[in-house]
Amino acid sequence: MKLKSKDFMLRYAKKSDLKSYYKNKRNDKQIDNGFHGYKYPYSLTAAKKDLNRAILSVKQKDNIYFIIEVNSEAVGEISFEKIIPKLSAKIGYWIGKEYRGKGITTKAVKLAMRYIINKYNLRRIYGNVRTNNKGSTRVLGKCGFKVEGIQRRSGLKNGKYYDEYLYGRVR
What we know:
Elements: E1 2-4, E2 9-11, H1 18-25, H2 29-34, H3 44-56, E3 64-70, E4 73-84, E5 88-95, H4 104-120, E6 124-130, H5 134-142, E7 146-157, E8 160-170
Parallel strand pairs: 5-6
Antiparallel strand pairs: 1-2, 2-3, 3-4, 4-5, 6-8, 7-8
Helix pairs in contact: 1-3
């Protein structure tokens, strides 16, 4: 499966992505700020595990991961988890530092959402974003998501609790 745009391509992950996947995700404080399970510094072992999860998702029905590819390099990822056909899915995403602020993430999220909504006939896509993650709040806003509430003390990182916005988009 490949979804092409002028600036990037979305596709399923493959083992040969490991080098660029790791390069673009490792030691990134902003990604560390955005994901519950991300451990800073990010190890090659963790990258292998994450990439393998993305590769295996193709065979699953409730989770799908797309690689964001630019110039034949895996520079980011979009995930749809907890997919319930005809109902909902949870979105997550990241992109490497070098590719931020260029509109790629917003365009990639829009393209991936069109695909996943049509494939599963979804009515709702939702996502959680830490209240201090300005980049992700902008992306979701540009993609038609609305803040549905604040989940207080919904995460724990480095011994500190944090709040998250719950974003949703319905059709």
